[in-house]
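Board notes (copied after class):
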Amino acid sequence: MANPRKNSSQDKAYSHIKDEIVSLSAKPGSPLRAQEIAAHLDVSRTPVREALSRLEQEGFVMRQDGWGYVVRPMTPQDILNLFTVRESLEVQAALEALPHLNGAVLSALAVKLEKAARLLKQERYAVFRALSREFHLSIAAASHNELLYRLLATARDRILLVGAMHQDMRSSRAREVQAENTKILKALRSGDPELVKDAVLAHIRASRASILPAGIVNAVDEPAVQARKPAAKRATRRRR
């Protein structure tokens, strides 16, 4: 029988490390030392190592010879793949939600956007990003398609990570996202599938266009270059 306390410690470590990665507190390419994390969380190293193994399977961290685990940098191709998946899933979710939208669901979505607007005024961008993602997940939930919802929920942290990478560089993108989400809600209220599809695609494609040409490609690749330097230095010392 599994030890509940052990699982609880592993979940605690898993959530902590993932939150650090998604919020960019742990930068791409930076080391993740099990001993330091365990001391910070007041747990043993075993659940931390197990949490790191889970995150490796999910693609958030990677092993590096001689350095243990590091935060896995997202390549430009990773980002493009994410946006391709978003286009397919989020458009489908919004279209499937249309027959199920009622006053209560639309009001709940509007409340989220009102709260998001207040967060923007307070310049609380990290909380805004999370709420914006909840807005889109709420639309997916309204589709009554459980598999579709789960797929988008699984992609949530990667979407937040990409958003953090960009909005930390240009916070005005958050205001653009708010305007795009407002248009999505207006389209949902209209009940017109074409308007809904166009609004969702416009939001996703604007996000993609704002990220990849804006110097983000170099910002994503640079940590990977830096992460390889220690290994190169060790190889040089061995040759000497």
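Comment from the instructor: The first strand starts at residue 31 and ends at 32. The chain has a mean pLDDT of 85.
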